[in-house]
Amino acid sequence: MNRSRVIKWIKIAFLVYIAVGVAVYFLQDYILFRPEPLSKNQSYDFSMPHKEINIPVDNSSNLNIIQFTVTDSLKKGVVLYFHGNKKNISWYAKYSGNFTSKGYEVWMIDYPGYGKSTGKFTEQRLYDYALLLYMLARKSYAADSIIIYGKSMGTGIASQLASIRYSKRLILETPYYSMHSLMSHYLPVYPISNLIHYKLPTFEYLQKAIMPVTIFHGDEDGVIPYRNAKKLKAILKPKDEFITIEGGGHNTLNDYPEFHRKLDSVLNLSN
Asked: How confident is the prediction for the chain on average, in pLDDT?
């Protein structure tokens, strides 16, 4: 290959590199988040008992909350559930039975642009909505009756809340070390800290969480690599747990009996 052809291909590679970087920068909200909005008048058709609450945050923002309730008059507590990056509460409602069957209410929020929640989508707004949910829960439950639970993208949000408010336990399902470290896995040759403005530094928040922490992650996770989450083990407290579900993928942990055995054990410890 002659010198001119080499230079030509170097220029093409450089242009492709720049084009991908520009696309990631301007399209990162679409790449990272896949919300499915709903009309404010649309009714949920959940088969399980539930209540819907809407909190007007400001003139243009609404926080939608679904409270999955329990029929037992003696409630053990409440799980504040922060879901992943796609669709809305309707997609994650099926997981509420993991907790309501054990006597825990499950309160889920939708993030701005998801479901019936509205407002500008920012990292700080994610944290603000999480705090609003916690403050609402504290009107009905003591802090030691609250479990903070995060799944996938929601693990960073749950960890931030746990770093500023006390709860009985923090449970993370398929967490990431930080959004920047996760994106560096997919785009290793790019300056991610300059491209991605969402940080969600789970590792920083975990170091400030004083309650017991339980982490679940599958070693076959194709979305958030196991090795990315495993880095969190280094900052866990001596009695915290990092539970590996062998063969588990990103959205399949609920299919594994081992996941349910461990989760049930943690919930019993949280009584």
From this structure: 94
| Tokens standing for residue 77 | 């507590």
Pick the closest to residue 183 from 85, 66, 269, 97 (CA basis).
Answer: 85
Q: Is 126 exposed, middle or buried (0-12, 13-18, 19+ CB in 10 A)?
A: buried
Amino acid identity, residue 178?
Answer: S
Give the chain's end-to-end CA distance (angstroms, integer).
Answer: 71
φ and ψ at residue 195, rounded to 5 degrees: -95, -45
pTM of the predicted model over 0.90: yes
Nearest CA among 79, 61, 193, 219 for reference residue 126: 61
Interval 169-184: pLDDT, tens: 999 999 999 999 999 9
Q: Is 58 helix (H, G, I), strand (E, B) or coil?
A: strand
State percent of the chain over pLDDT 90. Answer: 82
Q: What interhelical angle do 123-138 and 154-164 show, nearest 10?
A: 60
Separation between Cα atoms, residue 212 and residue 267, nearest integer Å: 12
Among 69, 65, 195, 68, which Cα is nearest to 130's? Answer: 65
* pLDDT at residue 270, rounded to an integer: 59
DSSP string, 122-181: -HHHHHHHHHHHHHHHHTTS-GGGEEEEEETTHHHHHHHHHHHS--SEEEEES--S-HHH
Q: How far apart are CA 254 and CA 119, in angstroms?
A: 31
